[in-house]
Description:
- With about 240 residues, this protein is α/β, with parallel strands linked by helices.
- It has two domains: about 5-30 and about 95-235, HAD superfamily/HAD-like (Rossmann fold); about 30-95.
- The chain is built from nine helices and nine strands.
- It has helices spanning about 30-45, 50-55, 60-70, 75-85, 100-110, 125-135, 155-165, 180-190, 220-230, and strands spanning about 5, 15-20, 25-30, 95-100, 115-120, 145, 175, 195, 215.
- The chain has a seven-stranded mixed sheet with strand order 1-9-8-7-2-5-6, sandwiched between helices. Strands 3-4 form a two-stranded antiparallel sheet.
- Helix 1 crosses helix 4 (about 75-85).
- The longest helix is centred in the first third of the chain and has 15 residues, at about 30-45.
- The protein starts with a strand and ends in a 7-residue tail after the last helix.
Amino acid sequence: MGVPLIGWRGWEALLKLIVWDFDGTLVDSRPLIEAGMTHALDKLGLPRTLMQEWLKYVGLPVEVGIQRSFGSLGLSFDEVLKAYRGFGHAEHEGLLRAFPGMDDLLSELAQKGIPMALATSKRTLPLLRQLERLGWTGRFDPIITPDQVTHGKPHPESLERCLAAHDLKPEEAVMVGDTPFDMEMAQRAGVPRVAVGHGFYDQASMMDYTPLAFAPDTQALRATLLELFPAPEAQ
């Protein structure tokens, strides 16, 4: 079971929707992201040690991550973005894989009739392509990306769009994510949240945002979500 951090008894009577982050939560995209940034750093003639600075901002829209990582180096935003996108991410998407057990977990939750949405910092076109590759097309509704909002994470707009699509109150959904940006977004939206530890950030980085639980892997996440979304006869 995931590690409960605050009492969650009572939440199971309220929750009606799971909102997922994508990179680092559902899929291990670190190899793809690191390959793209390695390409960009080499292209720009920059030391690969800057990778660690870049990884601090994974979970934000890529444009924001670039500004925060490279703004102080005197490089133009367009120059870095062009180098990063020149990697050819579509041709290397085989590097991106679902975390072990995640496909089964999504299928199980879907079979239980639990609605699921996506709130991600990945742009729409690559996201839809990757969902199709994973066999997850049609699994999430709505899918909210930076292309659908004015303000990206950690602003609450993405979550607010998910709530509005299902006509739900904030306390009727749970956000599942692997970054402090996911946790902050949920906190600002008034949405309860579950932190996962198999992505880009450790447990300590998310504790300021009072998640209901911390799940270090998919097995623990499954146990946590089944606690929060029990079968009707178990409620």
